[in-house]
Design brief:
Length: 277
């Protein structure tokens, strides 16, 4: 192993599991999470060493062009998850339960979770909310399906919030988030996403519970980080939140490449003799 490589640790496994991410937390090895929605991107992200691939309902935004995540259906999530699972050899694949697939209560949530697990081959599901969904989490976990929780800014509730601003800045909401985190851990969640909350609160919650926390816009003290891959890779650039770091500008590379292709076709430089039969 080269001197620039990461030290051996719990992440060096043939397949990341819920047990692996817990071991990573205990060994203080940060967990890298990105969203994925299709076979090709999943394959690239998996080979690059991403620990968890989240099949997010953010597909509604970056794949389908919707304003919010609410239009995603369970059928659509199953389709995207099937594609991602086929492209993943190492990463833990977690699938969002979309809006309307668990809000009626534990029975509906369990049916939705079982369908995802049976039809996609994914390894876990994720749902949003605190105390109101704790019973649903318990029911799903009791049936043998791992659940990742999600607190803070919960996009499925955006019309209730009326804004994408930072959550839990006021003490009353911060107290509720602390209680929700403990309740979700008690309900059986194996990990918890903390989205767009003050960094100090995310650090406090991460230290107060024993399961991994995955931050997005929640500072550096969580046990891992998640970004929407289209944001991180510069495929979607209209959305410019403070917490996004762009590791590439693939939109520019793709545009340049396609312009070159169009020019080659127009000028009959493509195909040449070596590309013809």
């Amino acid at each position: 192993m080269s001197s620039g490589s990461s030290p051996p640790g719990p992440a060096d496994v043939s397949r990341v599991t819920t047990k692996t991410v817990q071991e990573m937390r205990e060994a203080d090895v940060p967990i890298a999470v990105l969203t994925a929605y299709d076979y090709t991107s999943a394959r690239l992200l998996d080979r690059a060493g991403v620990d968890v691939l989240l099949v997010g309902d953010s597909a509604a935004n970056v794949m389908a062009g919707h304003e919010t995540t609410l239009p995603m259906t369970l059928d659509q999530m199953v389709y995207h998850a099937q594609c991602v699972v086929r492209g993943s050899d190492r990463a833990l694949v977690v699938v969002d339960l979309p809006f309307g697939s668990y809000q009626e209560g534990p029975k509906e949530g369990l049916r939705s979770a079982i369908r995802i697990m049976k039809e996609t081959g994914a390894h876990a599901v994720k749902l949003e909310g605190g105390e109101p969904v704790a019973e649903t989490v318990e029911r799903i976990v009791t049936a043998g399906v791992p659940v990742m929780g999600h607190l803070g800014l919960t996009p499925q509730s955006i019309y209730n919030y009326g804004t994408y601003q930072v959550r839990a800045q006021e003490e009353a909401e911060a107290d509720q988030l602390r209680r929700d985190a403990e309740r979700l851990e008690a309900a059986g969640c194996f990990a918890l996403v903390l989205e767009k909350i003050p960094a100090a609160l995310a650090k406090e919650v991460s230290e107060a519970i024993s399961i991994p926390t995955i931050g997005i816009g929640a500072g550096a003290a969580t046990d891992g980080q998640v970004l929407v891959s289209h944001d991180a890779l510069g495929l979607s650039t209209d959305f410019e939140p403070r917490f996004v770091r762009r590791y590439a500008r693939l939109d520019e590379h793709i545009t340049d490449a396609v312009e070159e292709y169009v020019d080659d076709v127009r000028s009959r430089r493509f195909p040449d003799d070596s590309e013809s039969y």
